[in-house]
Specification:
Layout (H helix, E strand, L loop, with lengths): L2 H4 L3 E4 L4 E4 L7 E6 L10 H19 L3 E6 L17 H9 L3 H18 L15 H13 L3 E4 L2 E4 L1 H7 L10 H6 L16 E6 L15 E3 L1 H13 L3 E7 L3 H16 L4 E7 L2 E3 L2 E2 L10 H6 L11 H9 L7 E3 L1 H23 L10 H19 L4 H20 L9 H18 L7 H23 L3 H13 L2 E5 L5 E5 L1
Parallel strand pairs: 3-4, 3-9, 9-10, 11-13
Antiparallel strand pairs: 1-2, 5-6, 6-7, 7-8, 11-12, 14-15
The structure holds zinc ion.
Amino acid sequence: MKLYDKYPVRLTNSLGGKKEIFEPVHPGRLGLYVCGPTVYNDVHLGNIRTFMMFDIVSRYFRFLGYRVRYVRNITDVGHLENDADEGEDKIAKKARLEQLEPMEVVKHYTEGFHEVMRQFNILPPSIEPSATGHIVEQIEIVQKLIEKGLAYEVNGSVYFDVIRYNENHHYGILSGRVVEELMESGRKLDSQDEKRNKVDFALWKKASPYHIMRWQSPWGDGFPGWHIECTVMSTKYLGETFDIHGGGMDLKFPHHECEIAQAVGATGKTPVKYWLHSNMLTVNGQKMSKSLGNSFLPRELFSGNHPLLEKGYGPMTVRFFMLQSHYSSTLDFSNEALSAAEKGFKKLSNALGTVKKLAHPGEGTPDKELADTLNKLVDELYSNMSDDFNTARTLAVLFEMSARINDFKSGNVLITSVDQDCFQNFKNAYVGFMEEVLGLKEEEEHNQELLNGLIKVLIELRKKARQDRNFALSDKIRDDLKAIGVQLMDGKDGEMGFTID
Ligand SMILES: [Zn+2]
């Protein structure tokens, strides 16, 4: 029996809002699409929570034995400043402000994004397509929508006709928005507007003469609207109907609603079986936002260099912290919570190091009650994760397991109280859920602390050598350190600092 048959995944589908049993489009396979970053800025923690959540989803499906194709895009054009299809392209604007080529902006922030993903041990997707690499396909689908009477061209721009679409389909099926109410609220269209209805959205925008990012199209030079890229890239790589589409809660409307309308309009098929949305981050109970001054960049969090932080926290501590709450609830950042997470993570991480070293000698006098307890804990790991990816309860089970591991280590309980299979199964589950499913590994900065400590010891020895006028030894320490990439810097008062290449 496959693990995924034994522990079928149940997930809360944002489409309908009910918990459903996951049934893949193709048996034994998962097609997963997640809206990736718009690369004009440093990735912030709210986005990291989303990418971490879907890292967990893809890891767990893989752990259960599914073949996973995970597609996460890079938005490198077409994301306008507001959802009303007005304003400047975010990437073009950044390029103009910093006097860079747009592709310089894209490359810089894409690399920064990948580095942050690596720090948090968020695995790369199977395919990471970019919007600019799929302009031809975007033009094709826009043409198809025009042919079907669901889109119209005005002055070189093309808009999706929501009212027409809503005659035979349901715009609002995901977000619960009602077209009539959307039409009533806010600003009315004026004669300047190109849209027929205020709920319509851009599929293609005409490029003004000074706009840098532009492509030829049947409607003249222009660039794609934001929503169309995800429809193109998800269905191109995963099929016209695929399993799971994810993203942050803030993307549900209008972005994901528009994705559904575009795909249904073009193919007549429902594009996605299950929609998953992760909730947002708050800081000391307030929404995290740049304007409130309470949003952190990952590097500020690691260094502790931020007015709201008492100290720095390692990426694995932050990862553990984020996994302590369910993805569908808000998660509040505070010093207290992070400090507590640091302690908690250390416990699990220590037990991980311990259990890896423990081995069963092969024979023993099994205690059935203990074996039942250990087997039950293993079973609970799976059942909790299969219950809508409940990482919080999974961590609670790992804590119980870590107490058992410490009992084995101290000799309070003999490993031989269970048979070899039972022990091995218990050990594999602990290691597997920590490392493969939750992606928790030892904090790298522990090694950094050790390294810094060792260098300081050498600096003190060199100081002593100089005081003793043993310059040969003091030079040797300096040169040998330099050879391995540690540069000592003599400062005032004989103080020495250092840099590591
Ligand atoms: Zn998207």
